[in-house]
Amino acid sequence: MTRRRKRPNIFGWAVFGLILLFGYYFDQVYLPTQPNPFDATPTVTRSPESFVTEAQKLFQEGKLTQAIDAYESAIKSSPQDPTLYIALARVQVFASLPHEAQTNAENAILLSPNNSMAHAVLAWALDFEGENGKAMEEIDTALQYDDKNAIAHAYRVEILIDSGSFENTDKAREVSRTALALDPNLLETRRARGYIFEATGDYENAIQFYKSAIELNPNLALLHMELGRNLRFLQVSDQAIDEFLRANTLNPSDPEPEYWISRTYGTTGEYEKALQYAEASVKDRPTDARLRANYGVMYYYNFFYTKAAEQLSLALNGGRTEDGFPIQGIPLSDDLRIAEYYYTYGFALARTNECGDALRIVQSLRTNVAENETVTNAADSITQICEENLNNPAVDTPIPDDEVTPTEEIITSTPEVTPTP
Fold this sequence. Notes:
The protein is mainly α. 68% of the residues lie in helices and 1% in strands. Among the domains are: 47-147, Alpha Horseshoe (Serine Threonine Protein Phosphatase 5, Tetratricopeptide repeat); 301-421, no CATH class.
């Protein structure tokens, strides 16, 4: 009865209460505000405008692949903006990617069916793909939606010329004036004026307008290619090769600069260099029969007749590349460049004593390209070689390339035809 009761530990209970309160605060208030260490770190989202600015800068620098990547990033950021698809398609045409450009121009039309620029760029891409009729329809549609669209008028010049019609060439001349009047400070309008001068053989004026287009962007391979072609037509070969080399540096995956370097060296008699660049162009695009035919021609100029016949057979008759990819043969036509491929093949066959095939080519040339004196003379020379082979009993097997003697029967300057893109 006299034992004293133990007093409660108020301080301990207070500490325990504080611990409970802290635990509640930590679990219910603090922790929810902290990032989960196992979640991905959020990244800052770039605006589509920043990608566009970057793409425009890269385009001006001639870095077309990087510019394409930047526009694609802009599209991912803003997939409903048709102007981004149009800008991307335009760069892709300059980068020799017309099929991809067609796809993006069509995407722009899906988003904005009445967009004049979308139809114009689609027309341009189709023309580069060889779909001239469809390109004509699209460019007319573009101008229906906006007849003041200077770029659309510029594209129309090119499409009209590439149709191959003399009537359309006359029309293109007037259209080029319209494009230039609407906006003389556009790369496209200056280039279109150069294109019409080139098509009509006024190479000096073509050079001036291509140079004025290059002033607006000195880093586009296409413009240097076009300038180089016209310098070559005027036989300013060293400057032409410089322009082709510049184009090749800017767009090394495109075989066209190497093809034209090869043709230029071929006409100046530097056949070893011509063969070197012909081979480089084939490596860039092994299934292109035209490049393969030029390769065969340059083998012939270097007196490698067996190899010339092999490459020309593959180009003209079709077959498969060394890696097994198919090549579509080039049919004979009255086009002088194609005729050159055929009569060079005939010479190579005759020189290796394959006269049965050589004389069949002679017959085809006389039937299909009888009006051209160069072709007629070549056919006569092939026939003469085969007659000499027949009268010479020692010539009964193909002649090895290392035993041939030089010949000059076809080392002439066949007129060049302005290629369509």
